[in-house]
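Hi everyone, sorry if this is the wrong subforum. Our group has a chain we'd like a structural model of before ordering constructs, and none of us has done structure prediction before. Sequence below.
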Amino acid sequence: MRERNVRRIEPPTACVIIIGNEILSGKTQDANLQFLGHELGKLGIRLAEARVIPDIEDTIVATVNEMRTKYRYVFTTGGIGPTHDDITAPAIAKAFGRDLVLDAIAVQRMQRGRFELNEARLKMAHVPEGATLIENPTSFAPGFRVDNVFVLAGIPSVARAMFGTLVAELDSGGSIFSANVDVFMREGDIAKPLEALALEYADLDIGSYPFSREGRFGANLVVRGLDKGRVAEAIGRIVSTMTELGGPANMGAPEEVA
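Answer:
Right subforum, don't worry. Here is the predicted structure as tokens:
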């Protein structure tokens, strides 16, 4: 094995906390995690962890407080609507030891809508004291940010619109490049040489994802990293190694994650 003296450049990290009993019950299928992982990857921010938790205040408080100390950014989705089970805002306030207050600017934004601001809708204008509002160009009820925690709606179209307004607040970690190769061999037959390559290219993320296609077993081997040249070199080594093992492969060129 060739010796390397390559320092692993760690991109900013993030966590997504998906809040909602409806997700855990299977009644609603989450679509926000895939979107956020993809969009954060484009910014060079690595989504390192995701949690799905119920609408229980103590659970939300504990999870947010744990994750905000571990990761550069935390994104929550769900629980900021007008009904009794929407408890994310007061839970975030409790996590930070702040009061929940009616935000006058949030009220002004919501007045753009065509519905009366009754007591239930005004609930969506309450945020932790000192929070920064996140614009909602879709339905006007804002999300909010407290320190490194960004609180988004659970409705996918609204969450996406909110995220689009806050991108400028995130520090980019640089472009992430990815390349992949399909190897028609079982993972048990390639695990050892793949492990050696992963150790050699420890500055990159190398993953194996098994598949079965028309009765043929194989694995999609993926290389990801911030250095396009290193990604290309690693995928080339993987192809040559797997070819020596007798596995036909279809290699994809390194591309910027998009």
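For your construct planning: The two ends are 33 Å apart (CA to CA). The mean pLDDT is 89.
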